[in-house]
Write the structure tokens for this entry.
Amino acid sequence: MKTTKIYLSTLLSMVMIVSVSSLIGGCEKDDDNGGESSLYQKLGERTGIDKAVEKSILAIASDPALTPFFEVVLVDEGGSGPGLDALKENIADFVDASSGGPATYNGLSMEAAHAPTNPRMANVDNITNEVFDAFLNAMIQGAKDAGISDESILTEYRNLLEQSRNAIV
Ligand code: HEM
């Protein structure tokens, strides 16, 4: 009888410990971002971001205001440089990391990548506000083409990208 009592109270304590710790765990998760999901999650995590960036590249390729800037990357497709896949991966890492995702962005800073001091940007005009706007539109169009239709998510995404304007223009 005594053994059963000890056994039951041990079991009860274990159940209590498990439920208290899962409660604490649950709170910690919410505390990360005030209980709201991150933009990374809203974009569909890495799968969604990859899809959006892929579609954005297609939108860039169909805008004559943007294509001259990417000729250097297309030339890579001949085998002399990192190419389009590397650019897509870098942009996706950048979006992933800056929207609250787990990736680490290891590329050049936004200033360094887009300045005329980057030898790969030497043969193009400076990036103006108009060109930046066209790029931003292509990024948002890509997200839409990838199936993201919620206006508040698209606005949040645009605002995130907008933060790089001063470094790039
Ligand atoms: C929010 C806006 C932008 C973001 C987040 C962005 C992001 C990036 C990233 C992550 C890279 C890779 C850097 C590296 O290879 O280390 C890159 C490169 C590049 N970006 Fe942007 N970019 C933006 C705007 C623009 C605009 C407006 C243009 C021109 C129309 C542009 C043209 C390029 C080109 C040509 C490269 C390749 C440079 C190279 O291969 O060295 N980007 N961008």
